[in-house]
Amino acid sequence: MKDFINCKLIFLINLFILLNINTKAQTVSGNTLYGSAAVHDVYLNFSQAGYWDSLTANYISDVYMKCTMTIDGTSYPTVGIKFKGNSSYNGQGNKKSLKIGIDEFVAGQKYDGIKKFNLNNGFKDPTMMREKIALDFANQMGVYAPRCTYARVYLNNVYWGLYTLVEEIDKTFLSGRFNDKKGNLFKGDPQGDLKWLGATVSNYYPKYELKTNSTANNWSDLVHAIDNINNSGVNFYDSLESVVNTASVIKTWAFCSIFSNLDSYLGSGHNYFLYDDSISLKLNYITWDVNESFGNFSMGMAVSQMESLSMFYVNGPPGNRPLYQNMLANPTYKLRLINEICNMLTYFTNANLNSKIDSLKLVINNDVIADTNKFYSYTNFVNNINSDVTVASNMGNQTIAGLKPFIQNRNSSLTSQLASNGCFVGLKEFVSEQHFDLYPNPVKGDGVTIKSQAQIKSIELYNNFSEKLFDMGPQDKNEIYLPLNRYAPGLYIIKINGAGVKKVVIDRN
Fold first, then answer.
1. Per-residue model confidence as pLDDT tens digits over 199-212
2. Within a 10 A sphere around the Cβ of 273, how many other Cβ atoms?
3. Other CB atoms closer than 10 Å to residue 31's CB: what's the count?
4. How many domains in the chain?
5. Can you say how many angstroms the Cα of residue 195 is from the centroid of all Cα atoms in its chain?
6. What is the pTM of this model?
7. What is the extent of the structural domain holding 155?
8. 402: which of 62, 304, 358, 387 fits an S-S bond (Cβ 3.0–4.6 Å)?
């Protein structure tokens, strides 16, 4: 019993991927670029004498200008380049984020199958690792998210600094993730709060961007989904399921909650895409711009508050973030969110992530030292891995959470929160010679059927605090029906033959 209570929840990664990751298509384009452990070299050369002034002027009009690019030895005489970003652009210094349009002036021109990529400047991150770690984690967990690597960027052969090189959310991305690029792709910017603004489509133009099929300019799918989000009443669950891939919403929500990433729909109410793929005819949620994860978009909260942030945190009063707030009010969605956070938290540990942090530090260390345009000192870079650092900013001093202590403290807080919400993080669920199946699971009716490869000699039922609720003696059958009608909705643990362990969720909503 002691071993059962104290065992650690470790799901086999292949099983996790099988059950939790959407595998409609295998991403091909960009695998060499984003799959490499090396830092890439990107040379951007301009013939224009006043290229910096031109880039600055073009930022307002959001227009590309021409330059020559060489990436890892492959040269392109003409690509498009422009400044990008909001807060990251307005920060001090000349290390601006950049967007590269490889095909902007030469139709069909690609590198490793991709047409565009982003070079992000590491604004508000002394470690230059937040974006990389968060996006790698998101992709591993089956969140629809761009991939990320590193690049040394040179302007007119002068080393300009170390950048993260981040995948563009475009038709290439859509083809790789959804095996489809025909649908409408909407960006939830600048204020994608998903509030109902009436049936007039033009009301939504100032708050969202249509990134594909702009000639047709059909916004009906987005407006219909927003209508269902806000106006479905008692039919909310069925209405939302008919227009939104809610699994993609919940995965991104869980990811942002774990990383206290509030520069998202959780907090600021933007930094996401919705893709209405032409296969499922549902909107799929895609996360974007996670450089302020690890609690770095604090909304006035201290580091300790970001580390202990409620797993159900949503910014603002009722109606401020209607998608999340209405989903939280629905017991089924709330339970799915709890279980998703519980699953992901297994991997959000120092044991899993510290070695990755140490490895990345070695990879980028010399490039950080050589980066004279970086926003923070090398001392900040080193110290912020293992401890909080306080730095000067435009808004006064800011304390930035250390990567490793944030992981430890956030994991501890969420483990405690989950224990109070039906998830026993200390449980190990495994497949052994005592393998058995449970169905239906979640349980909507009065009980569950247990089917075992071996004869069932004993059955034990525990709640999420490992308190035994009953112990049933030998059945000498391979299949039995276990009544559960007297137990309240929540997470329970079934153990058979003293060895096989599985979770069962009672959800009668």
1. 999 999 999 999 99
2. 25
3. 15
4. 2
5. 22
6. 0.81
7. 24-167
8. 387
